[in-house]
Specification:
alpha/beta, Arc Repressor Mutant, subunit A, 8-stranded mixed sheet, 10 strands, 21% strand, rod-shaped
Length: 300
């Protein structure tokens, strides 16, 4: 049966060998000299060989046996490996290292996450992050397939996702986005029926209107554009108007304006989506808690 070597005993052995004495090693270990002697004796019993020559009364130095000289680099190697593993696990538990994978809807990815992630990684320079964006369906699929640790999305039809948990974080009001020179641009809010007379462009978030009083608008859209960059370009060119959640509107855009939809008032709830039966890694758990604590309304 192989001996079970204790890291503490290995440290004591290395200190005695390097400091050339049990007394010096005892001071370094903050232990008594008899305690160090007992530790070394137990290690020698496990190994079946003496590590140090019998002490010469004429000298205070402690010398290694041939077996001890052979074992010294091995002991140092074991200690170094132990310390590396212990450090890695400590850093991982403190979310300062490891690999974090998250997915988010584009609106949160562009409007909120940059600032949050910058703060989060400030004290974790060795933490690797893979980030994916997509619509809510795509984000949820990545969570289901475990491509990501968790997602930031809207969870439509929650009754169909009993295997997931959803923690709402942001409330995102639906409104109309149009060019600054559009007839409705100066209104403080707008009723959905007023939109019938204007050319509508559908997009990936339009289905938020399903089941609301404004659902007839879904059948009135003459065009559908799924890509947000293309959608914004068409809106800026005066091609039409569209409904969008507030966070999906590019911040500080100089050509477009957002008019809240007042009737009906539709709110999109965006939050953290994760699988019920899967534990998060320490970095992912830390980021989830960070988001909960630091998220606030960015509509300023």
């Amino acid at each position: 049966m192989l001996p079970e070597l204790k890291i503490t005993q290995l440290r004591h052995f290395v200190w005695v060998a390097e400091l050339k004495g049990f007394h010096a090693a005892a001071e370094k270990a903050h232990r008594t000299q008899p305690a160090i002697s007992l530790s070394i004796r137990d290690l020698e019993n496990k190994l079946g060989e003496s590590l140090f020559e019998k002490r010469n009364a004429k000298t205070a130095k402690t010398e290694l046996t041939p077996f001890g000289r052979y074992f010294l680099p091995k002991a140092k190697e074991l200690i170094a490996h132990h310390d590396r593993v212990a450090e890695d696990m400590t850093l991982l538990a403190e979310h300062k290292t490891g690999h974090l994978r998250i997915a988010s809807v584009p609106s949160i990815a562009t409007r909120i996450l940059p600032e949050l992630l910058l703060q989060f990684v400030a004290d974790a320079p060795d933490l690797h992050i893979s980030f994916f964006d997509g619509n809510s369906d795509a984000v949820i699929k990545m969570v289901e397939s475990q491509e990501v640790d968790f997602g930031l999305a809207s969870l439509f039809h929650e009754e169909e996702h009993t295997d997931k948990s959803f923690t709402p974080i942001w409330d995102d009001q639906i409104g109309v986005v149009c060019p600054l020179d559009h007839p409705i641009a100066d209104q403080k809010e707008i009723h959905w029926e007023e939109l019938r007379q204007h050319r509508l462009i559908g997009n990936g978030t339009s289905r938020i209107l399903e089941g609301t009083e404004a659902s007839p608008l879904l059948g009135l859209s003459q065009f559908y554009i799924s890509n947000m960059i293309s959608l914004i370009a068409m809106l800026e060119a005066g091609f039409g108007i569209t409904t969008l959640p507030w966070y999906a509107v590019p911040k500080d855009n100089q050509k477009l304006t957002f008019v809240p939809l007042s009737s009906p008032k539709v709110i999109r709830h965006i939050g953290i989506v994760q699988m019920n039966n899967k534990s998060l890694s320490p970095p992912a758990e830390a980021l989830v808690e960070f988001i909960k604590q630091h998220s606030q309304d960015h509509r300023d």
